[in-house]
């Protein structure tokens, strides 16, 4: 075991040395360069998000913070629906054509996918407007109508378009520009959101109006970021200025078929990822949602490693055979080595993290954070395996695994709620956390088993 960790440490130091020497040759160099920018982007995003999270949690207190988290998560669910496979298709098809220097074909695929994405944005923005009354009043029974009805559609439109533009850069292995965008976005967010909390929401004592103002402020951040990103896009996405080739009917059908297959995978993933929100929003009061979101949000912002695999998708798409398997094993071992130590550290110092950052009002989040710290090991590996399967067109494998895991998560959540709802609501939240951790590890185990089956059929000859 010590020899294993020693080897992994050597690999990490070797990567650091290549960064300082700016040695980015080959696929490994490309991965290191992109990882460096993605790592820097994620560090800025996570540090900024953690600062903002602490500010909002301390000022709003658990009840109002829980309402804000529930409104934001609900809108983000519709944002995710508006993607439905388009993001993966952008990376897959544009990365392939740009690698071949087929700029006209790359633009053609880009424009076709933009049409699909805009169609989905319109559909799900309209659907949120129609369902906002039912979601807020009937299902959640919480004062979120104004935020969902008036702000939700704008949030969906601008955040979805920003993510689409970012994918255009990532498809061309350009992670520098998204880094600049993220710096700009986080700076204005740290300015605008605290001002909204400290000044504008004091104008009203109504909780629904306060949540509306907070979500409107966040949407304004997205609008400014979109304008800034458009400026960068015109100057740096030069392949979009190239004359567009025409896609054949066969090529369009291929794209549409891929999007449909990915959509099934995305839908299954969405239900797995948002079941905790749907159950908690229905069965517990907003202060307990606040406790849960503080713990979960820290897990989501604590480890930059969680989004490391974004840079590997374009590279995995171009590798085959033993080169792919070797790259995958090396990535998995490094990610596991880092995430294990981060998880252990968070578990041990959870009381310090919660009381120091959020205050004694969130003491109920300590044990929740301890339970969820186990996700820091599983999530990066899940993202890596997903990246592998999607890049190799094995969408059906992930979809099946997701469906089985979603069913397990639903059963576990329902069981915990059924037994604990008559006791202290915090027990319900404990149950949701345990259900989330168990399901993620079950999902990872199924992915590893599926990967082993595929690895047995890898050709012996290097391809």
Summary?
The protein is mainly alpha-helical. The protein contains 16 helices and no strands.
Structure description:
- The protein is mainly α.
- It has one domain.
- It contains 16 helices and no strands.
- Helix 2 crosses helix 8, helix 3 (86-99) runs parallel beside helix 5 and helix 3 (86-99) runs antiparallel to helix 8.
- The protein is globular and about 60 Å long.
- The two termini are 32 Å apart.
- Mean pLDDT is 83; it is low at 1-6, 309-319 and 458-463.
- Beta-strand percent range: under 5%
Number of strands: 0
The helix count comes to 16
Low-confidence spans = 1-6, 309-319, 458-463
Residues in helices, as a percent range: over 70%
Structural class: mainly alpha
Helices and strands in order:
Layout: H1 2-21, H2 26-81, H3 86-99, H4 103-139, H5 145-171, H6 176-198, H7 207-236, H8 249-283, H9 286-302, H10 313-316, H11 321-348, H12 350-357, H13 365-372, H14 375-391, H15 395-420, H16 425-455
Helix pairs in contact: 2-4, 2-5, 2-6, 2-7, 2-8, 2-9, 3-4, 3-5, 3-8, 4-5, 4-8, 5-7, 6-7, 8-15, 9-13, 11-14, 12-13, 13-16, 14-16, 15-16
What characteristics describe this protein?
463 residues, single chain, 0% strand, 16 helices, disordered N terminus, globular, disordered C terminus, mainly alpha
């Amino acid at each position: 075991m010590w020899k294993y960790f020693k080897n992994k440490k050597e690999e990490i130091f070797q990567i650091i040395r290549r960064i300082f020497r700016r040695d980015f040759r080959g696929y490994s160099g490309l991965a290191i360069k992109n990882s460096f920018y993605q790592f820097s982007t994620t560090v800025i995003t996570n540090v900024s998000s953690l600062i903002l999270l602490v500010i909002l949690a301390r000022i709003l207190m658990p009840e109002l913070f829980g309402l804000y988290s529930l409104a934001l998560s609900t809108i983000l669910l519709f944002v995710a629906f508006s993607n439905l496979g388009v993001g993966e298709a952008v990376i897959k098809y544009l990365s392939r054509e740009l690698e071949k220097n087929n700029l006209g074909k790359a633009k053609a695929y880009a424009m076709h996918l933009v049409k699909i994405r805009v169609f989905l944005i319109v559909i799900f923005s309209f659907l949120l407007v129609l369902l906002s009354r039912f979601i807020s009043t009937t299902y959640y029974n919480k004062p979120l109508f104004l935020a969902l009805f008036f702000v939700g559609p704008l949030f969906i439109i601008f955040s979805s378009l920003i993510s689409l533009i970012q994918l255009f850069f990532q498809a061309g292995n350009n992670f520098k520009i998204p880094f600049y965008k993220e710096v700009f976005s986080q700076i204005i967010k740290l300015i605008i959101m605290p001002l909204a909390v400290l000044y504008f929401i004091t104008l009203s004592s109504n909780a629904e109006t306060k949540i509306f103002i907070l979500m409107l402020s966040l949407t304004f951040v997205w609008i400014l970021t979109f304008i800034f990103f458009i400026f960068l896009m015109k100057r740096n996405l030069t392949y979009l200025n190239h004359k567009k080739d025409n896609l054949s009917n066969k090529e369009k059908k291929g794209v549409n078929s891929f999007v449909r297959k990915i959509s099934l995978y995305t839908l299954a993933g969405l239900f797995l990822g948002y079941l905790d929100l749907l159950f908690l929003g229905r069965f517990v009061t907003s202060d307990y949602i606040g406790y849960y979101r503080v713990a979960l949000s820290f897990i989501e912002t604590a480890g930059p490693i969680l989004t490391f695999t974004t840079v590997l998708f374009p590279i995995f798409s171009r590798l085959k055979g033993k080169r792919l398997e070797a790259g995958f094993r090396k990535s998995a071992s490094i990610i596991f080595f880092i995430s294990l130590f981060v998880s252990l550290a968070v578990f041990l110092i959870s009381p310090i993290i919660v009381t120091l950052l959020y205050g004694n009002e969130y003491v109920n989040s300590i044990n929740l954070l301890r339970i969820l710290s186990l996700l820091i090991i599983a999530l990066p590996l899940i993202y890596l395996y997903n990246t592998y399967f999607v890049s190799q067109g094995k969408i059906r494998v992930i979809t099946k695994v997701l469906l089985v895991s979603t069913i397990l998560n639903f059963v576990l959540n329902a069981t915990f709620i059924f037994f604990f709802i008559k006791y202290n609501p915090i027990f319900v939240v404990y149950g949701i956390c345990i259900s989330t951790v168990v399901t993620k590890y079950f999902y990872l185990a199924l992915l590893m088993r599926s990967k082993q089956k595929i690895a047995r059929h890898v050709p012996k000859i290097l391809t």
